[in-house]
């Protein structure tokens, strides 16, 4: 394919002695856009310039030495098999903060799973709440798995920590089981959001733009939505008390979840 005439591209060695002894540019681009070799001599650096003719002076101050610059990165490539090859500008504090967040997500998932088991009992039989907490448990576990994948992607090591035993009974003498469980869920979502904000703060402190972007795009927006939704559920349950209205709330929640899945 023929290209339109374009300004000459000249690659010149910035070394003064070399330029004096070699006035002809090392590489030039002719009027048809093709590169041709003028001279091939050992060089330590180059200046790239664009001009209308080959005799124009080069643009000064634009020096690119790829083989010199890559040496610094080559020193960062580990030779020990146990060390990650992909790790770059990923601090130990960021790695630890991610592992802590993984633990938070798994602990919250465990509590939600306990709530699911409670509301699924035959003598409780609130299927909407059971389904809600089952899906909430699955979602928190997915969040933990996504953090684990990201940890590996950045060259960190996933270190799983202990998970605390959750409650198995959620009935409350004054609030009833539905309101008590939903208030507990709201507290857990706010706690999770606070921990995510701490993780984002660690990323910002370490100038880890990608980790900050990951937390923002994958978690923070969704967390705000969850807090708003559960806050509405708490407000509704406080209105209806712990009597017959709980059954209607449970049916509403069940239809809402089934509609979203359809």
UniProtKB/TrEMBL annotation:
InterPro entries: Ferritin, Ferritin-like, Ferritin-like_diiron, Ferritin-like_SF, Ferritin_CS, Ferritin_DPS_dom. GO terms for molecular function: ferric iron binding; ferrous iron binding; ferroxidase activity. GO terms for cellular component: chloroplast. This is Ferritin. Stores iron in a soluble, non-toxic, readily available form. Important for iron homeostasis. Iron is taken up in the ferrous form and deposited as ferric hydroxides after oxidation. Residues 88-241 form the Ferritin-like diiron domain. It comes from Lithospermum erythrorhizon. It catalyses: 4 Fe(2+) + O2 + 4 H(+) = 4 Fe(3+) + 2 H2O. Fe cation binds at residues 105, 140, 143, 189, 223. Belongs to the ferritin family. Gene3D superfamilies: 1.20.1260.10. Oligomer of 24 subunits. There are two types of subunits: L (light) chain and H (heavy) chain. The major chain can be light or heavy, depending on the species and tissue type. The functional molecule forms a roughly spherical shell with a diameter of 12 nm and contains a central cavity into which the insoluble mineral iron core is deposited. Its EC number is 1.16.3.1. It is found in: Plastid, Chloroplast. Pfam families: Ferritin. Transmembrane segments: none annotated.
């Amino acid at each position: 394919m023929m290209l339109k005439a374009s300004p000459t591209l000249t690659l010149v060695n910035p070394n003064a002695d070399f330029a004096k002894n070699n006035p002809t540019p090392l590489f030039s681009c002719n009027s048809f856009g093709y590169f041709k070799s003028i001279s091939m001599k050992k060089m330590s650096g180059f200046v790239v310039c664009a001009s209308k003719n080959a005799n124009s002076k080069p643009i000064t101050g634009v020096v690119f030495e790829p083989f010199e610059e890559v040496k610094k990165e080559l020193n960062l490539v580990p030779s020990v098999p146990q060390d990650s090859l992909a790790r770059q500008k990923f601090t130990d504090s960021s790695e630890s903060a991610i592992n802590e967040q993984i633990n938070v997500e798994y602990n919250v998932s465990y509590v939600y799973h306990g709530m699911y088991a409670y509301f699924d009992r035959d003598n409780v039989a609130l299927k909407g709440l059971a389904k809600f907490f089952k899906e909430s448990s699955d979602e928190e576990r997915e969040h933990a798995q996504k953090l684990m994948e990201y940890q590996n992607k950045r060259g960190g090591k996933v270190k799983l920590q202990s998970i605390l035993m959750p409650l198995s009974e959620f009935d409350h003498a004054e609030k009833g089981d539905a309101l008590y469980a939903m208030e507990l869920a709201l507290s857990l979502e706010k706690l999770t959001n606070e921990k995510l904000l701490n993780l984002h703060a660690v990323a910002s402190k370490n100038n880890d733009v990608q980790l900050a972007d990951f937390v923002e795009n994958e978690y923070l927006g969704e967390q705000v939505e969850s807090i708003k939704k559960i806050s509405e559920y708490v407000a509704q349950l406080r209105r209806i008390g712990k009597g017959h209205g709980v059954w209607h709330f449970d049916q509403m929640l069940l239809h809402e979840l089934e509609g979203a899945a359809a």
